[in-house]
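Lab meeting tomorrow. Please check the following:
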Amino acid sequence: MAQSMDSRMLSSLQELLHIDVDAVMLYDAALRILAVPMAEQALMEFRSDHLRHIRELNDCIERFGGERACIGVNAEQCDLHGFTPIEEGMPLEAVFMAMVDGEQITTETYERILKEDWTQEIRTLIDRNFADEQRHLLWVLKASRTRMWEQDAETPIPL
């Protein structure tokens, strides 16, 4: 039997869930286009973080009577919550800027929703995911500022 939760709070968790689904789609698009070995490892790790967020948020939402989100959707079906879409043929600088844009939106959404009145268990989950988002944002900002795609493959940007 599902536990009860205020519909506004359930809606906030679903918003986080959907933004993480969209982030996975954004990472998938970036990984298809980028041929920058230094970036691939970080982007695959960040994509995995978003997949973990989706699993954990889905479990939490389901426990409180909400519906699980499907993550096997096609990128064209995603809302992308204001993210800049990544498309074939984009310059690498534009791909990295789209990643910055996506992580800024995701980080701001987590920060806003974290301000709501949550149980300790849910606050811990949201706070942990928010910390991941801050780490992702710092990395993509640094990669973009340093024009990582133009650098020697021997100079990785730490995660």
